[in-house]
Amino acid sequence: MIKTIKEIEEIRKQKREELDLRININAKTKEKHILVCHGTGCTSSKSPQIIDNFRKILGENNITNVRVIQTGCFGLCAKGPIAIIRPEDTFYAHVKPEDCEEIIKTHIIEGNTVDRLLCKDIDGTIVKRLDELNFYKKQKRIALKNCGVIDPENIDEYIAFDGYKSIYKVLTEMTPDQVIEEISKSGLRGRGGAGFPTGKKWSFAQKEQAEQKYIICNADEGDPGAFMDRSILEGDPHSVIEAMAIAGYSIGATQGYIYVRAEYPIAVQRLKIAINQAREYGLLGKNIFGLGFDFDVDIRLGAGAFVCGEETALLESIEGKRGQPRVKPPYPASKGLFGKPTVINNVETLANITRIILNGAEWYSSIGTETSKGTKVFALGGNVNNVGLVEVPMGTTLREIIYDIGGGIPQGKAFKAAQTGGPSGGCIPAEHIDTPIDYESLAQIGSMMGSGGLIVMDETKCMVDIARFYLDFTVSESCGKCTPCRIGTKRMLELLNKICDGNGEEEDIYKLEKLAHIIQKASICGLGQTAPNPVLSTLKYFRDEYREHVLARNCATYTCKAISTIQINPEKCKGCGLCQRKCPVNAIKGEGREIRTIDPEKCIKCGTCIQACPFKAIGN
Amino acid sequence: MEVNCVNEKIKKDMAEILEKYTDQKDNLIAILNEVQEKYGYIPQKAQLEISEKLKIPMAEIYGVITFYSRFTTEPKGKYNISICLGTACFVKGSGNLLDRAKERLKINSGEVTPDGKFSIDEVRCVGACGLAPVFMINNEVYGNATVKMLDEAIDKYMNL
Amino acid sequence: MEEEIINFKIDGIEAKAKKGTTILEAARQNGIDIPTLCFLKDINEVGDCRMCIVEVEGRKGFATSCIQKVEEGMVVKTHSPEVLEARKAILELILSNHHKDCLTCTRSGNCELQNLCIQFNIQKINYEGEMTEHKIDDKSPAIERDFNKCILCRRCVATCKNVQEIGAIDCINRGFNSCISTTYDCSLNDVDCTFCGQCIESCPTGALREKEYIDDVWKKLKDDESYVVVQTAPAVRVALGEEFAMPIGTNVKGKMVTALKYLGFNKVFDTNTGADLTIMEEANEFIERLTKGGTLPMITSCSPGWVRFAEKNYPDLLDHLSSCKSPHQMFGAIIKSYFAQKYNVEPSKIVTVSIMPCIAKKYEASREEMEVDTLRDVDYVLTTRELARMIRQANINFNALEDGDFDIPMGDASGAGAIFGTTGGVMEAAIRTAVDTLEGKSLEKVEYEAVRGEKEIKEATLQIAGKEIKIAVASGLANARKIMEQIKQGKCEYQFVEIMACPGGCVMGGGQPIKNSRTRAAVDVRKLRADALYDIDEKSVIRKSHENPVMQELYKEFLKEPGSEIAHKYLHTHYTKKEKYNI
Q: Is the Cβ–Cβ distance between A428 and A417 less than 8 Å?
């Protein structure tokens, strides 16, 4: 049913009151909402079953003033599955389906908290409320504003929190030029990696004369370990759709496509629902708000090719072809999808648009650093306690993210490096941990912002192996179109394998470097041009580790199995047998209180025993 | 005889699938996704039907199928083990899981055991980074996985 | 409208170029060459190989000169040390995954990759490593694929897919495992390939080549029991010279005949005579169809690539194809019957060899229909290139040869037979004969400009004996498809259509000397070769097939009249539906 602006405002007013409890701890209401994360992470640890159980038990107890809401990601995936009860904001972590009954009984019916399910912060304090967690204290949520707050499958909830207000404002109060001007002034830059100013991109496409233009949302998030875009699509799909319409109005496009990985079934499903709901309300389609503006959005599925995140490869893929990048120029803004002017924006970039339109460029540009405005969402992963999704103002340091928000490194291990930008980025060593994160400073230290993967590595990681891991990824994801990337990255990988296998020569390190520089400059697309970054940055900061592999034929972290032997130091071994019980391949011999030995034939050098030994008796 | 029957069935299925699309070439990937979903792979006969409808040469369709890792031309094993090699999982040791699976089943990733029971896939981030390392058997996720867990899971399905 | 001129600087030279010119073109216009591999003008402009990279001031990475256009004030460096180092490394990378058996490669000496190695003084390959391994596909009678020599420039793919609009080959797999192949990596023999051989012409290396029959022919030439008769197609004589460093479009008929005699062929005949014979039959067939209400339009059938295309793609429309065999097949059948009888040679001892500009003729000769009384019409088909190889093997100093003449009794052909070798030629030759027949007199007009030239589909309306006849000429299979779609939809108004599989006709056939990318960009090879054929026609005394005394004698002594029963036995064939894919 097409809604007029009056009807939309009606929905907004009514819903906003109803949902006050979601964001206001003092909300005056008799209702309670149990919010359960229904993002991919929590879903794979059974959150759908938790939702079902809650509803079932509520029904059995005839409780009608409590609703169970499925939301997008709260961010703190490490504590998942998560359930939050509002308005009091009680935060239950690691909830299991069988815990539902106790939560309903104790919390809802009796009014007491289920203490055993409360979350412990890293410092050991019991945290009752979500916003008491250190994890959230330094965050600033703009792109993720609605994630974990609203039910992403209910357009009314989006409308309640200012949804579709921006597009109305733009259509009634602003010319396309003014919109672009506003976005330019905000300083928003592309969140997909390269950081191109968004306003500039739009203005290029606006200036082109063409009968048809396109807006594309790039949701082909492929960096291994990055899931910012997925979480936004799962938690707040309408914000992206609305932003696409705003972009469409600005450049003169009437059709948008969201190119999303088929591996994100939940995101795809949410988008489908959101698009249908928006169409039903007349917020997509012909003559939006009766203001003469047409805009519609369709979904295009990717099919498992990382390179399709590169904008021209993405265009090829939407056109139904192999995702092989095109040579630029011409740029998509002049010759894009089906040869027509096209703006391609990343999900997170788009998620900022409606907030900028409503709050103004000045507000947005007051956040962040001189050259990088606003916030950035990171998928924090690897050897860090609070694995999850964080949104911080640009300029926050790596240390703040890892230690204050991320809760530091598990088991008290030392920080060795962090990788930003995934396979296109570089590693940041401890000496740069206080670098404020923005586009320029990351580039300066040999990494890049990238789309937001932030992987923390502790002292047990071999940096040569890490470089090899990323290169292995690029080699298998290279499209094969241009020579330097197709063959060059393969040769680099072979050199790294040679080094890790203990056959490296010093000359190989120079060869690696030379090839890396040529691939950077001669490849067609961003994938090839950035593929050598992990190697170059590890060579820059951890050259000694490479040299140790080559000259001493030793991998100090036992990662490169060919050049590390694991032995039990008989002087230190107390014969407790713990290592033996943990060994997955029964490679450790000895009985009773005997000193244990490792059978090198059987040992797969997984390192489990090293971790297990309480006496630090195992090493090389 | 049997092949003919199968082909007839595919022809019928494909007619239903193709009916939903125009004959514009940019529908190719959407159609392939649907076929992959339906059969677990993309049969040759299905490719012929698509080629006819969209007027795309078979070589190009095959080129597209072999480009995208989601598409396969052979059915997967009854139990498909996907091991996440996303960075978060890798850093937490999913490489060992992969090695172990290959060793146990004596196949490489992307391959199917001779009896058709198991196949191994390397996947890039299944989105459960909070549970890293992760592997999946069909749609069941095994979080905070260890080699031992994998062994036990394989044992379980081996005996089914 | 005046064209906008761009001022830019290249290697320190102030230069100008029209707006829209690529850096590569602009450089060449200014006498600066930039090496290329994947670039094939108008056909493959994708920037894959990265050989043509240059430095553009203000740009972070290298620019792709075959794609990027010059801009006002642009400063380009085409051979800075950094660019040269990168190009050399890229070449080494290509070589690291290339079978480097150059000494035994058919393209040695005419290989774009080899030339670059010489140019860059490659003496050592710094980046060796794993190589992709591919089986050689030699199942078809016409084309061999050896992708161990493929450098993934994709010129063949673009030619097959975009020029011919077949798409039998494409890039499959991804990354390092990418290769050019067919669906399911099948043999070309079993897919929609038509054997036009245009892919071979576009290949910079030896990855695509003809199936060679040189050794078989040598064996027959050595064998005293065999009586080896050779015939040469019209397009061969205007291209063979290129293999011996002569200018494109040189007519080397005399030297070619002498060389063939030196090689030891018992008789050297001219396929042009066979072409005259084809015209006799085809013009007659056309008149029959026209006057007696047969299937129209009638479409020529001398291009076997086109015939295979029709059989695979339009099996319901095969009635439109003339039942005439192609000239060399007709001629082969006549050699083993009429000639054998007249000169008292045992037909079973005759070995017929055709020198053709064509790859598909190899396949055509192997078609089961192409025999009469268990005698194969043509035993071996060699391409222009293979003939050149034989001449080199025999150590013949081709350029110094005296001119020789084709053997009688079938050596003399009309000018109409000569122009068979270019697009529009068959039509023009057929019209000359058909018009005279229908008008009942010999007309002065012999040249039909409307069917000449390079336009994709040429059409004309002729007034013949009070009738309006619409004709069309199409070359290249993409254009063939357009005509066939018209027929399929009942929208075709033509009565007579000539179709050649290769764009430009036989002079540009897949068996002709291979021109590198730079030559193809710089000169119109088709026009130079075609002009040489029109020149032969113009200088001929007899310019109409039916006025050729050889034809008159042949019909009097053997065939009786065009379309007779005996003519059908030897000179006509039929077509059958072929599965597009045998996979």
A: yes
